[in-house]
Amino acid sequence: MLEFNHPWAIKPTMLQPLADAYASSMREAHFLAVRSTKPAIPSGVVYELRDGIAVIRLYGVLMRREPSWSGLFDVTSTALTSEMLRLALSDSSVRAIVLAVHSPGGAVDGTQELARQVYAARRGKPIVAYAEGLMASAAYWIGAAADQVYISSDTTELGSIGVVATHVDISRAEDARGIKTTEIVAGQYKRVASMHQPLSTLGRTTLQEQVNQVYSVFVEDVATFRRTTPETVIRSMADGRIFLGRSAIAAGLADGKTTLDALTSHLRTSTASMGPRAQKLLLQFKNDVSLQRQYGSINRYAEECDPSVLHGYDQQVPNH
Question: Which of 19, 51, 170, 186 has minimal CB crowding within 10 Å?
Fold first, then answer.
C-alpha cells in the first residue's frame, strides 16, 4: 500500500490527485492484471543520443520504482534513471548529459540517492538540467545537482522546496459502514499515525519531526549543489513556493533560459573542442570549491594556468 503519511517532496497540488489515482486503481481489480502484462522497462535505447549529447528525461511523478498502478499518469523511476545515468557516463560516445525534466516531484525515497549521483557525475562529464515547464520539489532536488539549471520559458515553474506528509483518518467512514478496525502492535511508534483513528498529538509530532528532518537534508543538498549556504537557500528559495521563469533565475534556482536544441548544440560545440588537457583542467576546476570561489569561472582559471587548452570553450549557455 502506498503510504501518503510518509514524507513526500512534491508540488502540493499533485499529492491529492496522486492519492485519488491510487485509490481508483485499487477499486478496479482488472487494472492490475492488465498492467502486470506490460514490460517494466521498455526495450531498446534507454536515453536519447543527440550527436554526442545524452538526453535523459524525467517526466511525471518521481518514485524509486514504477508502480503497477501508474497507468493513469506519468511516472519516472529514479532507480531506472540512475541506471541510465550510469550508462551515459560509461558510454564513450557521450560527451555531455542533459536531464530534461517536467515533473512536480514525488516520493522522498530514492530522490537523494539520484541527486547525489548526479552531483558526483559532474566530475566525469558536463551535466545540465533543463526544466521543460516544471521542475518542482524532488525534481528540483535532482536537477539542482547538475552543473547548471536552465528553464524553457518565462512561465516555467521551479522550486517548491519543501516536504509534505498527509494523514488520512478513515475511522468515521468505517463507523458509517459498520466496520471497526483493531490494530495489535508492538512498539510505541509502530502505528503512531494509523489511518484507522484520529491523528494523536504524538502522531502529529512524529510526522512533523520526519518532515523537518527531510526538509533540512533537502536544503543542505541544494546549498551544496548550487554553491551557496543553507541560510541563503532558506531565505531566498526554500519557503515552499513556486518561482516562475525569471524570478527563479533571480532567486538563484536557475542559471538562464534557453531551448533544448540550443542547449544540446552548445554542449556539443563546447565539448567537441576540448582535448584531454582541457578536460583534465575542467575536472580539476569543477572538483575544487576553492578554485571556483577564487576564479569564478573556468575561463578565468584557464587563462592563468594554460589559456590554450580551453580555446573556444564557453561554459555559459546563451540565453534565448
Answer: 186
DSSP assignments along 118-154, one per residue? HHHHTTTS-EEEEEEEEEETHHHHHHTTSSEEEESST
pLDDT single digits (tens) 74-85: 889 999 999 999
Q: Strand, helix or coil at 96?
A: strand
Identify the structural domains of the chain with CATH numbers, from first to last. Answer: 8-167+201-263 (3.90.226.10), 275-311 (no CATH)
Element (H, E) at 111: helix 111-121
Report field, pTM of the whole predicted structure over 0.70: yes
The residue annotated as part of the active site, out of 25, 137, 152, 160, is 137
DSSP 76: E
Q: Where are the alpha helices (DSSP H) in 144-288?
A: 171-176, 201-225, 230-236, 245-251, 260-272, 276-286
Q: What are phi and psi of 295, to 5 degrees?
A: -105, -25
> Torsion over CA of 121, 300, 129 and 94, rounded to 10 degrees?
-50
Question: 190 catalytic, yes or no?
Answer: yes
